[in-house]
Fold each of these.
Amino acid sequence: MHQFKTRRRVEFVDTDLSGLVHFSKYFVFMETAEHEMLRSLGVSIHTRHEGFEIGWPRRAVSCEYVSPLRFGDELEITIQVERKGRTTMTYGFCLEVEGREVARGRITAICCVLDDPTGLRAIPVPPFIADQLQAVPVEVSDE
Amino acid sequence: MHQFKTRRRVEFVDTDLSGLVHFSKYFVFMETAEHEMLRSLGVSIHTRHEGFEIGWPRRAVSCEYVSPLRFGDELEITIQVERKGRTTMTYGFCLEVEGREVARGRITAICCVLDDPTGLRAIPVPPFIADQLQAVPVEVSDE
Amino acid sequence: MHQFKTRRRVEFVDTDLSGLVHFSKYFVFMETAEHEMLRSLGVSIHTRHEGFEIGWPRRAVSCEYVSPLRFGDELEITIQVERKGRTTMTYGFCLEVEGREVARGRITAICCVLDDPTGLRAIPVPPFIADQLQAVPVEVSDE
Amino acid sequence: MHQFKTRRRVEFVDTDLSGLVHFSKYFVFMETAEHEMLRSLGVSIHTRHEGFEIGWPRRAVSCEYVSPLRFGDELEITIQVERKGRTTMTYGFCLEVEGREVARGRITAICCVLDDPTGLRAIPVPPFIADQLQAVPVEVSDE
């Protein structure tokens, strides 16, 4: 899978007194799209693998805000696999409302053992996940 | 200890588009006061005890909203031990801003083993916690 | 309308380190069900009416927690109109996962003008809302 | 002012089932530091100016996560003015726990009129704010 789309309605609790959606909530919207994509592949964001508790702490995230998002808007979220590393996955997100771009974002997550006695430990992305996610092929012009 | 007081500033993210604090956030304010009280007694809300992971899931909570609470208000929270049960603690909360009552609430929490293979399991409140918390003495008129 | 049902998936951000859903989030789930019910009737929770900004601050809320709710659970929420007052609406909520009761709650909201210069001002529930919501008829035994 | 420091305790509600702080909450921590800095200068994040409602919607934000942050940690947040634009401010953040770097982030905010009938409208940063915030002087080597 290269790309996945989902929808959600902006809720009252997502807003702040400016009348707009609080900027931190966009990351929740992105994360939920990531989890829905994984669920659609039969994978949980938080699972046991070879006796360990596996999760995806974030290494880096970013978001650019393009146009206002308000209570009641129906958000369409597109997630793309931008890069598949040995221990990381990088996802790109596009958030739209009725075809209008609202924001674009990126999340790089590290596959980690969470319950190692020495703390978080990065591990290679297990094949049952990695094999199902493919980075979007780069479009190369052939001039 | 019967009673504990703490303060916090209402944050921007606590508000919603009505310009007021979202009603669900009052429970976060109460919970944080509960945790600060326990921390002041050297107790964590989430700890290991006799080999088990112990926590305090909630059995019942309530809140009455008395007057508006807004961004930037400095909230004073008073917590009282209302009832000490065998496996439960009931706390009463009073939220004020500059002497004006904003809300009052109640939380009943159950002391539970969280990692029992059979699921959540209520246990007697460990003495190192119970001994430090005393229900507010009932005022009895002597007629 | 007496009753309305909706569904939502529990999200990762709804959980806390106990592995359960944070107790304050149940109120967000209830509120969103309330808003979906109103939306299904063509009414917004936050609207202009006769030149004023109308909203529904909460007067009192409560929740009893019956069984654990976890990440990924698909929650079914039933909302009932329990009482229709002159300026208030009281809703009862039942939260279930696959037929298992998870929690029950109640929200009493006051219809208010939010932008009155003197502060919040309760007003009679406008007929275009009140006429569409009917309290659940009490079952009376006829002995 | 070039730089401002503040502290806060990580709360239970900030965590998720991985046992770590949810990545979206770091932006709340940064924002609250920004607001405290402005409050220390006598400026509110949300104010009226020349008859308009003025706020600071975000244009772009980012965060890199360096080491784990957990419930109960006492976070030290340093905010620096990185760039002062005509209509924007860019802040850099460093988050530490007992001298250990936890995360670093950046927020670019646009000074906007929020209640213009035509929608959000960027305006020059009012002098009573701009004059109090100075970008950190760039260290220039003198070769």
Amino acid sequence: MLNSSQIGALSQIVGQENCYADKAHRLAYSYDATRASHQPDLVLFPRHEADLQAILRYCNAEKIPVVPRGAGSGFTGGALAAQGGVVLAFEKHMNQILEIDMENLVARVQPGVVNMEFQNAVEEVGLFYPPDPASQEYSTLGGNVSENAGGMRAAKYGITKDYVMALRAVLPSGEVIRAGKKTIKDVAGYNIAGLLVGSEGTLAVLSEITLKLIPKPALRQTAMGIFPSVKAAMNATYRTFGAGVTPVAMEFLDQKTIAAVEATYKKGLPTHAGAILITDVDGNTPEDISWQLSQLEAVFKANGAETFYRAKNEEEAAAIWFARRNASPSLKHYGPTKLNEDITVPRSRLPELLDRIEAIGQRHDHPIPCFGHTGDGNVHVNVMTNKKDAVRYHNAEKAITEIFEAAIELEGTLSGEHGIGLAKAPFMNMAFTPAEMALFAAVKKAFDPHNILNPGKMGI
Amino acid sequence: MLNSSQIGALSQIVGQENCYADKAHRLAYSYDATRASHQPDLVLFPRHEADLQAILRYCNAEKIPVVPRGAGSGFTGGALAAQGGVVLAFEKHMNQILEIDMENLVARVQPGVVNMEFQNAVEEVGLFYPPDPASQEYSTLGGNVSENAGGMRAAKYGITKDYVMALRAVLPSGEVIRAGKKTIKDVAGYNIAGLLVGSEGTLAVLSEITLKLIPKPALRQTAMGIFPSVKAAMNATYRTFGAGVTPVAMEFLDQKTIAAVEATYKKGLPTHAGAILITDVDGNTPEDISWQLSQLEAVFKANGAETFYRAKNEEEAAAIWFARRNASPSLKHYGPTKLNEDITVPRSRLPELLDRIEAIGQRHDHPIPCFGHTGDGNVHVNVMTNKKDAVRYHNAEKAITEIFEAAIELEGTLSGEHGIGLAKAPFMNMAFTPAEMALFAAVKKAFDPHNILNPGKMGI
């Protein structure tokens, strides 16, 4: 709990109008998409980097926890004030696009800029920022960088870390560091920018982000494959990349997910299918698009696809993507509580992973619909249960643990894009050795010796 | 100096046949491409990861410096035993390609594998490993990762860090850590793999490297633009990327370099030109290649190119590339001693950078031919001087300092691909603030508390 002199000091830094200790603010900033709730003692709206410096210097001296927060749309509790203290919210002031540098295809932004606003701004000038997490309409670039967000276009274009060229950040000491450059290459000093990406606000507070942009390809086309089994679809996925095609997106829905979307929206989806693959390709010439689609069709058919359908226009493409975009909300069809995880395995292990998930679901008597970024080996696994039924919920939790075990055994990871935060922290010891965990702790200490930055996260 | 009991203990770990304290070995392993010489006390050829663990555990306890070494082809002294101690050489045993995983487009290698051998092995099965440093015929993947090597294909395909998916490494404590995964995405824990890339052997010793591969595009074509001035060529460079074309390579030679190559090899190069741009594009359809070349031609002509020449076949392409590949050795035309640096700036700052380099050369009365990876903003700057003429050499060193100052002022970096090592360590304070240098030191300490790993490098 902060005392009144601490609140007064912090209020003086940012001004009263940017400092809130009232119940409504503390509640509003206590949530994220996990539905867990941890109230901060104070919500601050820093105006600029100098505010961040003063806040951190003070909190470091007073050992007050500081939690940087984007839109609170995270799935693992990364933005929650697990140990109270101060939440830093960037949406009021530090939300500006500072520069779109057309000559170098680079942009500089403040952490509070919303992903979609940024995408729109760069597309208006013919450029392209590929990372598109499902939360893109509200999540912020600061949050995206801190969680190393992925998205649908990662199969071809990579994830947030592939676009972070440079960062400005404030250390707990209040000192500003610059990491990386507005240059394509930079090998001077340690790759601190690379380390800060995905560090979930535990090492430093971002004050400015320099992002790489690319020219927007002129053409894009959507296609869909309908497969008799999820295994056939998974085989087609990994063999596509081996055939020399790198689709922008390659997403799958399993039979249970297709059924849920159809039950909810009645769109005439192929509910008999074991799985569907939805894919986009892009390029600059019609021939390049045709070549990619022909390769895709050949691979899909060779792996048992009964249908390969090319969208003829924007409307057809939107109709195909509708199923994928509405997969997540449809799943309440199977139960009121969803435990969703974003495990990731090497693509060739997908068939085995899906088999094991099916067996785990049967063993614990829970439907586990799966969908997601199969082009990245990233599966959104949804154990549908009921929190109010204690026995059933306990079984669902056992299923989640077994799913993590399966992912790790198949050379995979606990998280492809959602991060660790609070939700997956208990599983870190499953994925990392004591030596690796000790190294994480040592790195944390190098940045944040008093453990004021987002304490209690990542199991560190 | 190691005493005989220390040498005995280390010899016992790797076996006598892998342990050398004789003059010839100490001399042979004292050099790299900088021509500086620092003799180690002992040269060890570890057989496997367990040897690395035992060596590091022992050296950590005894505070003996340990210097991991690739092929010794570095330009900044990264592989030199600046404080004596043990050199670890990987070419005898730890030089195997462990796996080429066709299903996931991933390879696992030991650090001693030579870059070109690896490229050849993956191309034999239709895959592609883009990073191609000029040293590719002898430099090792362990060295490439430790220096974050670039190369000619970086303009489109990125640099070594973009291909490192996972690492196994041994800490000074002797503990093995795994960092990263054979998955496209992995956001569990800190990005330790990203931090180890480019850390010049100062944080841990690599024992295994997992690299991303891509399908090899079917088609490739070379073209050349002849420009009246270096400024015109630099303008054309950065405007090319803005026009939506990303060439595989975009390399330039300035007038002095063209003249030196022509004087040395008599190939009929356009010695009247202010600069030439050599570029490769690749793709999977002839139309995509044509589209890219048309865009290039339009941009080159709009920026004053007098000629845009498309190579008609492999022989013509090889003839065009001959000039670029032989640029470096030709420069002795201008003087016996070459001080070469690989500064990098945002592409749009290239015209100004080249102007400033020209002025610096005139002020200090030294020819400074420039060539390099202009598509990355990465210029190889060559101050041609004579080490035996003390006054002249001192002026050349002043020119180098001014060139670094210009690069930093133009938002650039000391090094695009060669690293810092010993050679650029004195300039680190020019590029980084005390807070940033202190952070590097704290990170170093988190990994290597007794400073045994490659001590004295990177100014840390």
